[in-house]
């Protein structure tokens, strides 16, 4: 069974920029790293959860294989990760190590997973109070060192841009830079989205007809620029 990955408590902007030393936060709950990189052929990973609040925090940790279907993030419930401990109570000012076990690699392309850390209601909560339960979503990547992202684009029927990752590794696209065929200024589209290997996402773009686009560049989270190749249309 596949479930859509709804938007959960956002990771700090620093975490989105790849600064793994900065913890993801949701209220008093923290997690390090904010993104887990697992060596090729390894089946183990770990995160550290912390409590910066004044009361206990109880959390449940679940892990799933993560893929993108039709431009939407989805989690595969049939391919869960083994997590230990799956439920843990974290006293104030302390940290807990959580280990996870990954399935065997599926092929040459990068394997992608997500750890979902969900805060649980406390049994001794004061009567008449509302508990705001928070959640973190932590990506886990496992890839060979020689895997690479490779991007292509085409105009969707509604005029938006379809960008496909034909490579074997994910890329987090911060911006798309559209360069026109004329001497007019280029346009920049905010993306802020993961594009997994083999996946396609659709992006809106400014008032620049696709026929006027001469080139597209993708700027990743580290500021590196990737050329987005126009998709080749096969002739009948």
Automatic annotation (TrEMBL):
Q: Report which superkingdom the organism of origin falls in.
A: Bacteria
Database matches in InterPro entries = Ig-like_fold, PapD-like_sf, Periplasmic_pilus_chap, Pili_assmbl_chaperone_N
**What is this protein's name?**
Pili assembly chaperone N-terminal domain-containing protein
Q: Which residues form a coiled coil?
A: none
What GO biological process, any one, is recorded here? Answer: cell wall organization
Which species expresses this protein natively?
Erythrobacter neustonensis
What the entry lists under Pfam families is as follows: PapD_N (PF00345)
Q: Which GO terms describe its cellular component?
A: outer membrane-bounded periplasmic space
Q: Where is the signal peptide?
A: 1-26
Q: Does the keyword Transit peptide apply?
A: no
Transmembrane parts of this sequence: none
Keywords assigned by UniProt, alphabetized: Signal
What Gene3D superfamilies would the database entry show? Immunoglobulins
Q: Which stretches make up the Pili assembly chaperone N-terminal domain?
A: 33-141
């Amino acid at each position: 069974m596949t479930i859509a990955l709804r938007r959960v408590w956002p990771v700090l902007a620093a975490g989105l920029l790849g600064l793994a030393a900065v913890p993801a936060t949701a209220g008093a709950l923290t997690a390090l790293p904010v993104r887990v990189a697992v060596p090729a052929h390894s089946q183990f990973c770990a995160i550290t959860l912390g409590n910066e609040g004044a009361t206990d925090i109880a959390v449940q940790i679940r892990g799933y294989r993560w893929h993108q279907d039709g431009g939407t993030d989805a989690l595969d419930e049939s391919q869960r990760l083994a997590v230990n401990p799956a439920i843990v109570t974290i006293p104030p000012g302390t940290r807990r190590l959580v280990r996870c076990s990954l399935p065997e690699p599926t092929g040459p392309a990068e394997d992608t997973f997500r750890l979902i850390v969900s805060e649980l209601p406390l049994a001794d909560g004061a009567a008449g109070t509302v508990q705001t339960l928070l959640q973190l979503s932590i990506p886990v990547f496992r890839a060979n060192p020689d895997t690479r992202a490779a991007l292509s684009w085409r105009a969707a029927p509604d005029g938006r841009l379809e960008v496909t990752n034909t490579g074997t590794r994910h890329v987090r696209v911060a911006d798309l830079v559209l360069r026109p065929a004329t001497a007019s200024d280029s346009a920049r589209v905010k993306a802020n989205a993961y594009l997994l290997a083999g996946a396609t996402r659709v992006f809106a773009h400014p008032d620049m007809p696709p026929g006027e686009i001469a080139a597209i560049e993708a700027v990743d989270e580290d500021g590196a620029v990737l050329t987005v190749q126009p998709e080749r249309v096969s002739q009948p």
